[in-house]
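Hey, resending since the last one bounced:
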Amino acid sequence: MPSHQARAAPLFAKAPAGPLPISCPAPYQEPMNPEDIVVLPELKAYIDPLTPEEHDALERSILAEGCRDALVLWGNILVDGHNRFGICHKHGLPFQTVQNTRFQNMEDVQLWMIDQHLGRRSVSEFQRGVLALRKREIIAERRAAAAAAVVAAKAEAAQAPEQAPWEGDTDPVVAQALASVPKVPEDALDTREALARAARLTAAQVKAIETIHQNAAPEVVAAVKSGELSLNAAAVVATLPVEEQKSAAAGGAQELKQAAKRVRDSKKKPKADAAATEADGTAGPESTAAPDATKLQQRVAELEAENERLRQQVKALQDLLAEQG
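The C-alpha coordinates again:
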Protein backbone atom coordinates (compact mmCIF):
# COMPACT_ATOMS: atom_id res chain seq x y z
CA MET A 1 0.00 0.00 0.00
CA PRO A 2 1.23 3.52 -0.68
CA SER A 3 2.56 5.73 2.05
CA HIS A 4 -0.01 8.39 1.15
CA GLN A 5 -2.82 6.34 2.71
CA ALA A 6 -3.89 7.87 6.00
CA ARG A 7 -6.40 5.17 6.91
CA ALA A 8 -8.14 2.31 5.20
CA ALA A 9 -11.46 3.16 3.59
CA PRO A 10 -14.33 1.34 5.37
CA LEU A 11 -16.36 -1.20 3.45
CA PHE A 12 -20.11 -0.82 3.82
CA ALA A 13 -21.73 -2.03 0.62
CA LYS A 14 -21.80 -5.60 -0.60
CA ALA A 15 -20.12 -6.37 -3.88
CA PRO A 16 -22.51 -6.30 -6.86
CA ALA A 17 -23.78 -9.55 -8.30
CA GLY A 18 -21.63 -11.21 -10.94
CA PRO A 19 -17.88 -11.27 -11.40
CA LEU A 20 -15.88 -8.14 -10.76
CA PRO A 21 -13.76 -6.60 -13.53
CA ILE A 22 -10.39 -8.32 -13.82
CA SER A 23 -8.54 -5.02 -13.59
CA CYS A 24 -10.39 -4.04 -10.40
CA PRO A 25 -10.38 -7.18 -8.24
CA ALA A 26 -11.43 -5.71 -4.88
CA PRO A 27 -15.02 -5.24 -3.67
CA TYR A 28 -16.93 -2.07 -4.42
CA GLN A 29 -17.17 0.40 -1.57
CA GLU A 30 -19.74 2.78 -0.21
CA PRO A 31 -19.30 6.39 -1.38
CA MET A 32 -16.33 7.92 0.41
CA ASN A 33 -15.96 11.38 1.82
CA PRO A 34 -14.20 13.31 -0.96
CA GLU A 35 -11.82 14.71 1.64
CA ASP A 36 -10.49 11.17 2.24
CA ILE A 37 -9.43 10.73 -1.39
CA VAL A 38 -5.93 11.84 -2.36
CA VAL A 39 -5.55 13.37 -5.84
CA LEU A 40 -1.92 13.33 -6.95
CA PRO A 41 -1.20 16.04 -9.56
CA GLU A 42 1.26 13.78 -11.39
CA LEU A 43 -1.38 11.07 -11.85
CA LYS A 44 -4.08 13.54 -12.82
CA ALA A 45 -1.78 14.99 -15.49
CA TYR A 46 -0.47 11.61 -16.67
CA ILE A 47 -3.30 11.36 -19.21
CA ASP A 48 -4.31 14.32 -21.37
CA PRO A 49 -7.41 16.09 -20.00
CA LEU A 50 -10.77 15.96 -21.73
CA THR A 51 -11.61 18.75 -24.11
CA PRO A 52 -14.15 21.29 -22.78
CA GLU A 53 -16.79 19.71 -25.02
CA GLU A 54 -16.02 16.20 -23.75
CA HIS A 55 -16.05 17.38 -20.14
CA ASP A 56 -19.39 19.13 -20.61
CA ALA A 57 -20.87 15.98 -22.16
CA LEU A 58 -19.62 13.87 -19.23
CA GLU A 59 -21.03 16.36 -16.74
CA ARG A 60 -24.45 16.29 -18.42
CA SER A 61 -24.40 12.49 -18.39
CA ILE A 62 -23.54 12.30 -14.69
CA LEU A 63 -26.16 14.90 -13.77
CA ALA A 64 -28.78 12.94 -15.71
CA GLU A 65 -27.82 9.37 -14.81
CA GLY A 66 -25.47 9.61 -11.85
CA CYS A 67 -21.89 8.33 -11.68
CA ARG A 68 -22.32 4.81 -13.04
CA ASP A 69 -18.64 3.75 -13.08
CA ALA A 70 -16.74 3.29 -9.83
CA LEU A 71 -13.60 5.33 -9.19
CA VAL A 72 -10.45 3.20 -8.98
CA LEU A 73 -8.30 3.72 -5.88
CA TRP A 74 -4.96 2.50 -4.61
CA GLY A 75 -5.42 2.93 -0.90
CA ASN A 76 -6.74 6.48 -0.71
CA ILE A 77 -5.02 7.57 -3.93
CA LEU A 78 -7.30 8.22 -6.90
CA VAL A 79 -6.03 6.29 -9.92
CA ASP A 80 -8.88 6.41 -12.44
CA GLY A 81 -11.89 8.71 -12.59
CA HIS A 82 -10.45 12.17 -11.98
CA ASN A 83 -13.07 13.88 -14.15
CA ARG A 84 -15.94 11.94 -12.58
CA PHE A 85 -14.59 12.68 -9.11
CA GLY A 86 -14.37 16.40 -9.85
CA ILE A 87 -17.90 16.55 -11.24
CA CYS A 88 -19.39 14.54 -8.36
CA HIS A 89 -17.54 16.68 -5.82
CA LYS A 90 -18.73 19.87 -7.53
CA HIS A 91 -22.39 18.86 -7.46
CA GLY A 92 -22.38 16.85 -4.23
CA LEU A 93 -23.26 13.62 -6.03
CA PRO A 94 -22.54 10.14 -4.62
CA PHE A 95 -20.06 7.78 -6.23
CA GLN A 96 -18.66 4.33 -5.64
CA THR A 97 -15.02 3.31 -5.36
CA VAL A 98 -13.10 0.12 -5.98
CA GLN A 99 -9.65 -0.87 -4.76
CA ASN A 100 -7.04 -2.28 -7.11
CA THR A 101 -4.88 -4.39 -4.82
CA ARG A 102 -2.42 -5.48 -7.50
CA PHE A 103 -0.38 -2.29 -7.49
CA GLN A 104 2.99 -2.56 -5.77
CA ASN A 105 4.42 0.82 -6.73
CA MET A 106 3.69 3.95 -8.74
CA GLU A 107 5.05 2.41 -11.95
CA ASP A 108 2.43 -0.34 -11.65
CA VAL A 109 -0.20 2.39 -11.43
CA GLN A 110 1.19 4.13 -14.51
CA LEU A 111 1.33 0.90 -16.53
CA TRP A 112 -2.28 0.15 -15.60
CA MET A 113 -3.37 3.67 -16.57
CA ILE A 114 -1.56 3.36 -19.90
CA ASP A 115 -3.21 0.02 -20.73
CA GLN A 116 -6.64 1.36 -19.78
CA HIS A 117 -6.35 4.40 -22.02
CA LEU A 118 -4.73 2.58 -24.95
CA GLY A 119 -7.99 0.68 -25.23
CA ARG A 120 -10.28 3.71 -25.14
CA ARG A 121 -11.69 4.99 -28.41
CA SER A 122 -11.77 8.59 -27.20
CA VAL A 123 -7.97 8.76 -26.89
CA SER A 124 -6.32 10.45 -29.88
CA GLU A 125 -3.73 8.80 -32.10
CA PHE A 126 -1.02 11.10 -30.78
CA GLN A 127 -1.87 10.38 -27.16
CA ARG A 128 -1.96 6.62 -27.80
CA GLY A 129 1.48 6.84 -29.35
CA VAL A 130 2.86 8.85 -26.44
CA LEU A 131 1.39 6.38 -23.95
CA ALA A 132 2.97 3.45 -25.80
CA LEU A 133 6.34 5.23 -25.74
CA ARG A 134 5.97 5.80 -21.98
CA LYS A 135 5.20 2.12 -21.51
CA ARG A 136 8.29 1.18 -23.51
CA GLU A 137 10.44 3.41 -21.29
CA ILE A 138 9.09 1.84 -18.09
CA ILE A 139 9.58 -1.69 -19.45
CA ALA A 140 13.13 -0.90 -20.61
CA GLU A 141 14.02 0.46 -17.17
CA ARG A 142 12.58 -2.62 -15.49
CA ARG A 143 14.44 -4.97 -17.81
CA ALA A 144 17.68 -3.14 -17.12
CA ALA A 145 17.03 -3.30 -13.37
CA ALA A 146 16.23 -7.03 -13.56
CA ALA A 147 19.35 -7.72 -15.61
CA ALA A 148 21.54 -5.76 -13.19
CA ALA A 149 20.02 -7.54 -10.19
CA VAL A 150 20.64 -10.98 -11.70
CA VAL A 151 24.21 -10.15 -12.74
CA ALA A 152 24.98 -8.82 -9.26
CA ALA A 153 23.36 -11.82 -7.58
CA LYS A 154 25.31 -14.28 -9.72
CA ALA A 155 28.56 -12.44 -9.07
CA GLU A 156 27.89 -12.55 -5.33
CA ALA A 157 26.95 -16.23 -5.49
CA ALA A 158 30.17 -17.02 -7.35
CA GLN A 159 32.18 -15.68 -4.42
CA ALA A 160 30.13 -17.53 -1.80
CA PRO A 161 30.98 -21.05 -0.58
CA GLU A 162 29.89 -23.72 -3.03
CA GLN A 163 26.32 -24.82 -2.47
CA ALA A 164 24.53 -28.01 -3.40
CA PRO A 165 23.01 -27.91 -6.89
CA TRP A 166 19.34 -26.97 -7.03
CA GLU A 167 16.61 -29.28 -8.25
CA GLY A 168 14.50 -28.46 -11.29
CA ASP A 169 14.95 -25.68 -13.83
CA THR A 170 14.81 -22.71 -11.46
CA ASP A 171 18.08 -21.19 -10.32
CA PRO A 172 17.33 -19.91 -6.79
CA VAL A 173 19.87 -17.11 -7.22
CA VAL A 174 18.05 -15.87 -10.31
CA ALA A 175 14.63 -16.32 -8.73
CA GLN A 176 15.63 -14.37 -5.63
CA ALA A 177 17.14 -11.58 -7.73
CA LEU A 178 13.97 -11.28 -9.82
CA ALA A 179 11.82 -11.21 -6.71
CA SER A 180 13.74 -8.16 -5.50
CA VAL A 181 12.82 -5.99 -8.51
CA PRO A 182 9.48 -5.02 -10.10
CA LYS A 183 7.98 -7.61 -12.44
CA VAL A 184 8.88 -7.12 -16.09
CA PRO A 185 5.89 -7.13 -18.48
CA GLU A 186 6.14 -9.64 -21.29
CA ASP A 187 5.46 -7.13 -24.08
CA ALA A 188 8.82 -5.42 -24.55
CA LEU A 189 7.67 -2.96 -27.27
CA ASP A 190 11.21 -3.02 -28.67
CA THR A 191 10.26 -2.22 -32.26
CA ARG A 192 8.09 0.36 -33.97
CA GLU A 193 5.90 -2.47 -35.21
CA ALA A 194 5.29 -3.64 -31.63
CA LEU A 195 4.54 -0.08 -30.54
CA ALA A 196 2.17 0.32 -33.47
CA ARG A 197 0.24 -2.82 -32.50
CA ALA A 198 -0.03 -1.72 -28.88
CA ALA A 199 -1.25 1.77 -29.81
CA ARG A 200 -3.36 0.69 -32.81
CA LEU A 201 -1.28 2.83 -35.15
CA THR A 202 0.89 2.32 -38.21
CA ALA A 203 4.68 2.13 -37.95
CA ALA A 204 4.88 5.41 -39.89
CA GLN A 205 2.60 7.10 -37.35
CA VAL A 206 4.74 5.79 -34.49
CA LYS A 207 7.87 7.17 -36.17
CA ALA A 208 6.21 10.59 -36.52
CA ILE A 209 5.06 10.55 -32.88
CA GLU A 210 8.56 9.59 -31.71
CA THR A 211 9.98 12.60 -33.56
CA ILE A 212 7.34 14.92 -32.12
CA HIS A 213 7.71 13.51 -28.62
CA GLN A 214 11.49 13.93 -28.66
CA ASN A 215 12.00 17.18 -30.58
CA ALA A 216 8.83 19.24 -30.89
CA ALA A 217 8.38 22.52 -29.04
CA PRO A 218 5.41 22.60 -26.62
CA GLU A 219 3.57 24.94 -28.98
CA VAL A 220 3.84 22.40 -31.80
CA VAL A 221 2.64 19.60 -29.51
CA ALA A 222 -0.33 21.77 -28.52
CA ALA A 223 -1.21 22.24 -32.20
CA VAL A 224 -1.18 18.47 -32.70
CA LYS A 225 -3.36 17.85 -29.66
CA SER A 226 -5.88 20.47 -30.79
CA GLY A 227 -6.09 18.90 -34.24
CA GLU A 228 -4.72 21.98 -36.00
CA LEU A 229 -1.63 20.14 -37.26
CA SER A 230 -1.33 16.60 -38.59
CA LEU A 231 1.17 14.10 -37.24
CA ASN A 232 3.16 14.15 -40.47
CA ALA A 233 3.36 17.95 -40.64
CA ALA A 234 4.27 18.20 -36.95
CA ALA A 235 7.05 15.63 -37.36
CA VAL A 236 8.49 17.71 -40.21
CA VAL A 237 8.27 20.96 -38.19
CA ALA A 238 9.94 19.17 -35.25
CA THR A 239 13.12 18.84 -37.31
CA LEU A 240 13.56 22.64 -37.14
CA PRO A 241 15.41 24.42 -34.32
CA VAL A 242 13.10 25.01 -31.34
CA GLU A 243 13.05 28.79 -31.79
CA GLU A 244 11.95 28.40 -35.40
CA GLN A 245 9.22 26.01 -34.27
CA LYS A 246 7.98 28.53 -31.71
CA SER A 247 8.06 31.34 -34.24
CA ALA A 248 6.00 29.30 -36.69
CA ALA A 249 3.54 28.31 -33.96
CA ALA A 250 3.08 31.97 -33.02
CA GLY A 251 1.77 32.54 -36.55
CA GLY A 252 -0.97 29.97 -36.09
CA ALA A 253 -1.89 26.73 -37.81
CA GLN A 254 -1.39 28.07 -41.33
CA GLU A 255 2.13 29.24 -40.58
CA LEU A 256 2.97 25.83 -39.10
CA LYS A 257 1.72 24.15 -42.25
CA GLN A 258 3.74 26.55 -44.38
CA ALA A 259 6.82 25.80 -42.26
CA ALA A 260 6.32 22.09 -42.88
CA LYS A 261 5.99 22.76 -46.61
CA ARG A 262 9.19 24.82 -46.66
CA VAL A 263 11.11 22.02 -44.93
CA ARG A 264 9.78 19.44 -47.39
CA ASP A 265 10.61 21.67 -50.36
CA SER A 266 14.13 22.29 -49.05
CA LYS A 267 14.70 18.54 -48.91
CA LYS A 268 13.39 18.05 -52.42
CA LYS A 269 15.66 20.72 -53.95
CA PRO A 270 19.01 19.04 -53.11
CA LYS A 271 17.68 15.79 -54.54
CA ALA A 272 16.63 17.54 -57.75
CA ASP A 273 19.99 19.33 -57.99
CA ALA A 274 21.86 16.08 -57.40
CA ALA A 275 19.83 14.35 -60.09
CA ALA A 276 20.53 17.16 -62.56
CA THR A 277 24.25 17.12 -61.76
CA GLU A 278 24.40 13.37 -62.18
CA ALA A 279 22.64 13.68 -65.54
CA ASP A 280 25.36 16.12 -66.62
CA GLY A 281 27.99 13.61 -65.57
CA THR A 282 29.66 16.11 -63.21
CA ALA A 283 28.77 14.60 -59.87
CA GLY A 284 31.75 14.10 -57.61
CA PRO A 285 32.10 11.32 -55.06
CA GLU A 286 31.53 13.64 -52.09
CA SER A 287 28.35 15.21 -53.48
CA THR A 288 26.78 11.85 -54.23
CA ALA A 289 27.86 10.21 -50.99
CA ALA A 290 26.79 12.96 -48.57
CA PRO A 291 23.03 12.21 -48.51
CA ASP A 292 23.71 8.48 -48.17
CA ALA A 293 26.19 9.09 -45.35
CA THR A 294 23.63 11.16 -43.45
CA LYS A 295 21.01 8.47 -43.79
CA LEU A 296 23.47 5.80 -42.76
CA GLN A 297 24.52 7.76 -39.67
CA GLN A 298 20.88 8.19 -38.66
CA ARG A 299 20.18 4.50 -39.21
CA VAL A 300 23.29 3.49 -37.26
CA ALA A 301 22.15 5.64 -34.33
CA GLU A 302 18.72 4.01 -34.41
CA LEU A 303 20.23 0.53 -34.54
CA GLU A 304 22.65 1.29 -31.71
CA ALA A 305 19.79 2.47 -29.50
CA GLU A 306 17.73 -0.60 -30.33
CA ASN A 307 20.74 -2.89 -29.89
CA GLU A 308 21.39 -1.47 -26.43
CA ARG A 309 17.86 -2.36 -25.36
CA LEU A 310 18.20 -5.84 -26.83
CA ARG A 311 21.64 -6.33 -25.28
CA GLN A 312 20.23 -5.61 -21.84
CA GLN A 313 17.61 -8.27 -22.39
CA VAL A 314 19.80 -10.93 -23.97
CA LYS A 315 22.62 -10.59 -21.45
CA ALA A 316 20.63 -11.71 -18.45
CA LEU A 317 17.00 -12.14 -19.44
CA GLN A 318 17.08 -15.04 -21.86
CA ASP A 319 16.77 -17.34 -18.88
CA LEU A 320 14.79 -14.83 -16.82
CA LEU A 321 11.48 -14.60 -18.62
CA ALA A 322 10.77 -18.23 -17.84
CA GLU A 323 11.52 -17.53 -14.18
CA GLN A 324 8.72 -14.94 -14.03
CA GLY A 325 6.05 -17.25 -15.42
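Confidence is low (pLDDT under 50) at residues 3-28, 285-289.

Sorry for the duplicate.
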